[in-house]
């Protein structure tokens, strides 16, 4: 690309990095020799006598071929970072609402269309069994290469960016409302690429598509789906055996957290094992349940509707003792042949999966309160209109901070609305919307004459929005309620009064023994302790009850 060069600026105290080549398999060595000869013929690399020298490795692409990578970690360590802003995937998807025709352009060796500054080419030197070479064009693996490439693409399409073109590195998406517009847009986009020397893979080019894969998502004129390959990868992920493996799993699932209702509850359980200091890694039955339930939630993730900014938004919130969660939705017409059935915004996970991760203590003999269970549907009542056609746009959940756990239940309900409006401010600001909660505390809060300093800050945050509140009864909001509530995540329910007193009525003891068989978590803990094995922080009393104790004191 003319006028654009990639420069490599080093920190003052840098050290020249050179490293012995990695050993390669025979197929890899054969492929390396072929690719080096091709790069030399194209003038993308040249022989080098630079003191720098990074090793070569391969990464397998989706089509099974090998992509050459240089391990530039030694060079990147001393490179001054370019903090050019990269686009957010969710913000790009918002631009697609209402579009019916798509064209994805997959550039061929896009990085290689940008030259490396002459004085910096020796720093890109790499070593292999076939010699010492350096790049004349920008290779993969340099820490600032994405920033340089994104800046170049933004310059090419600056005047039409997010009008009918989205660019994320070498992924370009042209989107249009009509076929005529689409053809006109392509006549504008393609010559720009040709002018700057960028070439697309013709084999991957599809014009005027109604569905397209973009940024690891399936996009259509109305819907947003998770990438099938990523769903498969998550579903087949083996049980982690180290903190590093768990970090990798959570990193992949968090990318799709807006598809997963109540993601914070899974995250809470799994990260608790990462924060352990003694022992540093301990995989509990509860972690196993959370891991399997999260994989199941991913495979059952709902289809998200692309937002329509001509329709009002609905924010449904709920708060529990350990987390807040929210659903952003809009009401769309739902004809008989619509892909959107008359169901709640997100179907709950199957009963077996739900019960594994969300155990409930059934009512004891001295209580009248029913157990919290998953409802397969939202029951309509006079406080809120029918939910048919209410389609989810995104999900949000957040684990409460230790100080926030101590807030009153009413304050946590307000806090859920505060966090949701902050998170979706780009959707909600400047337009009226509706907030649904399972009580009227939010409405009372907005008209409360006297506020604490903390509440005053919340009122200030909410005052910039224009919304109305609608109460939704707890039994109506049962799916939302269950997803944000989990008794064992709150320390208070763990210190069950019936367990911590000295004298316990025999009927209570018998009731707890019975309920152990129905609770997935305590069933495992109870059976493990009865077999003579140990479970950290738990013990079995002479009365056959499970006791929890705090190691810290």
TrEMBL record:
Residues 335-351 have a biased composition (Pro residues). Residues 335-362 are annotated as: Disordered. It comes from the Eukaryota. Pfam families: RT_RNaseH, RT_RNaseH_2, RVT_1. One of its GO terms (molecular function) is endonuclease activity. This is Reverse transcriptase domain-containing protein. Residues 40-254 form the Reverse transcriptase domain. InterPro entries: DNA/RNA_pol_sf (IPR043502), Retrovirus_Pol_polyprotein (IPR050951), Rev_trsase/Diguanyl_cyclase (IPR043128), RT_dom (IPR000477), RT_RNaseH (IPR041373), RT_RNaseH_2 (IPR041577). It comes from Chara braunii. PROSITE patterns: RT_POL. The keyword S-adenosyl-L-methionine does not apply. The keyword Nuclease applies. Keywords: Endonuclease, Hydrolase, Multifunctional enzyme, Nuclease, Nucleotidyltransferase, RNA-directed DNA polymerase, Transferase.
